[in-house]
């Protein structure tokens, strides 16, 4: 499942990267297209201005000829306008080709030829005004200068047209490559999205199936809990009544007929009384455990663990004094929990610490506390590794046990020692684990034979 989710997340990440790449390529393409369009428009503008320059020179020359032929000043109006227009067009061309040294050099040459041409035209007009005669040699020089102008302008335009063709070729090549890349990326992204959709669909289908199975398990668990409730009812009523009668009749036998019983009879009667009492304790422990399992609504509240542990120590004060035990408790926090369950939890743990002690050894119990992260807890879910937990350690110097039994001791009715050595029903630690489960916490045991035991409790801070 984790591999499938990782693949889905990875695929979505790749799709996001591809979509970002597509967006960037599209943006870059639009930018390039805008740049190409600007460059093409720039080239067309240069070509138009060069044509306009030739046209103005023609108007310049035509106005001069008209005046020379007719001696009418009206023909000089285009002549005077053309001179100022030539300067404007020339400055525009210089500005447009400033990044092209070859074209800029041609414009510089063109400027000198145009100035020479204008001087010849002016000389023709001045000469006509003075003598009324025309100098054929001057006209021939003017024609030669105009031919030079046309040659320079033609070369100038040829270069611009070549630039235009080159830019169009690059644009077409770039458009073809961009289209191919965009098409491939789009197909790949679309394919990944389809795969992700199918995986999500399959995962959703699997989870719906799992949810259905879980609902069935919950129904089975509810039925099992109902059976356990029935068992608890039977235990609390039907089973305890015969036990009370057995104990009552055995006590009556002891009181009224003890002198008529021989040693063997009295011994058997004591065994009956002891067994009935042990059965009574076992039923009471089972009832306590079933109440923890079947409790549907638990009154959770903020509980002062310091006060809870002090109350437990006070309840065990007689046993603590008998064994001359030493109980050391650090400052404990407030936690969100059920007061009577937490009281029962520490009562069981401290009772065990006082019970399972080697002969002749003074019991020492230490209760320590610190705040930790969930990542410290063995086997915790990834989601809870960053959560804060109250870590409480209850350690003793008792008889301990072998490490292989660290989980077995929390199983109901599991005992590591015989009843003749240590009393108990084997339910206490199972109750402790159930209490920790009810509080969404964890309990672990660490021990070495003969060197004591450490019970490690983790309570969530929220």
From TrEMBL:
* Residues annotated as domain Histidine kinase: 234-462
What EC number(s) are associated with this protein in UniProt? 2.7.13.3
- Record keywords, A-Z: Kinase, Membrane, Phosphoprotein, Transferase, Transmembrane, Transmembrane helix
Q: Which InterPro entries match?
A: CHASE3 (IPR007891), HATPase_C_sf (IPR036890), HATPase_dom (IPR003594), His_kinase_dom (IPR005467), HisK_dim/P_dom (IPR003661), HisK_dim/P_sf (IPR036097), Sensor_kinase/Photoreceptor (IPR052162), Sig_transdc_His_kin-like_C (IPR004358)
Q: Where are the transmembrane segments?
A: 7-27, 181-202
Q: Which PANTHER family match?
A: PAC DOMAIN-CONTAINING PROTEIN (PTHR43304:SF1), PHYTOCHROME-LIKE PROTEIN CPH1 (PTHR43304)
This protein is called what?
histidine kinase
PROSITE patterns to which the protein is assigned, alphabetical: HIS_KIN
**Pfam families cross-referenced by the UniProt entry:** CHASE3 (PF05227), HATPase_c (PF02518), HisKA (PF00512)
Superkingdom of origin organism? Bacteria
Catalytic function, reaction form: ATP + protein L-histidine = ADP + protein N-phospho-L-histidine
């Amino acid at each position: 499942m984790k591999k499938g989710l990782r693949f889905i997340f990875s695929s979505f990440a790749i799709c996001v990267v591809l979509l970002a790449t597509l967006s960037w390529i599209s943006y870059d393409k639009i930018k390039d297209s805008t740049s190409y369009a600007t460059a093409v428009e720039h080239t067309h503008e240069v070509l138009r201005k060069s044509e306009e320059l030739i046209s103005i020179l023609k108007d310049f020359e035509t106005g001069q000829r008209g005046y020379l032929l007719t001696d009418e000043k009206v023909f000089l109006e285009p002549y005077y306008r053309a001179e100022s227009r030539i300067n404007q067009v020339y400055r525009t061309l210089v500005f447009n080709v400033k990044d092209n040294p070859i074209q800029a050099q041609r414009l510089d040459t063109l400027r000198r030829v145009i100035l020479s041409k204008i001087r010849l035209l002016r000389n023709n007009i001045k000469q006509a005004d003075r003598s009324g005669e025309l100098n054929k040699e001057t006209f021939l020089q003017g024609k030669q200068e105009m031919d030079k102008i046309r040659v320079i302008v033609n070369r100038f335009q040829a270069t611009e047209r070549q630039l235009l063709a080159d830019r169009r070729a690059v644009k077409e090549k770039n458009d073809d490559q961009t289209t191919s890349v965009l098409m491939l990326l789009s197909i790949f992204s679309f394919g990944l999205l389809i795969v992700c959709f199918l995986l999500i669909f399959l995962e959703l289908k699997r989870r719906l199936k799992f949810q259905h199975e879980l609902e069935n398990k919950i129904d089975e668990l509810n039925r099992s809990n109902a059976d356990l409730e029935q068992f608890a009812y039977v235990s609390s009523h039907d089973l305890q009544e015969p036990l009370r009668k057995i104990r009552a009749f055995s006590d009556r036998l002891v009181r009224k007929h003890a002198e008529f019983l021989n040693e063997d009879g009295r011994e058997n009667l004591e065994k009956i009384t002891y067994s009935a009492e042990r059965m009574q304790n076992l039923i009471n422990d089972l009832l306590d455990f079933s109440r923890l399992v079947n409790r549907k609504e638990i009154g959770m509240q903020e509980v002062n663990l310091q006060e809870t542990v002090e109350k437990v120590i006070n309840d065990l004060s007689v046993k603590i004094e008998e064994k001359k035990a030493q109980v050391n408790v650090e400052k404990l926090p407030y936690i969100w929990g059920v007061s009577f369950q937490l009281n029962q939890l520490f009562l069981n743990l401290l009772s065990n610490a006082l019970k399972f002690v080697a002969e002749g050894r003074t019991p020492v119990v230490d209760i320590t506390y610190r705040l930790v992260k969930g990542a410290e807890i063995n086997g915790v879910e990834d989601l809870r590794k960053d959560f804060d937990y109250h870590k409480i350690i209850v350690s003793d110097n008792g008889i301990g046990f072998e490490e292989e039994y660290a989980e077995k001791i929390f199983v109901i009715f599991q005992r590591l020692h015989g009843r003749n050595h240590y009393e108990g029903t084997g339910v206490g630690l199972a109750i402790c684990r159930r209490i920790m489960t009810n509080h969404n916490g964890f309990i672990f045991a660490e021990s070495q034979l003969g060197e004591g035991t450490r019970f490690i409790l983790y309570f969530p801070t929220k």
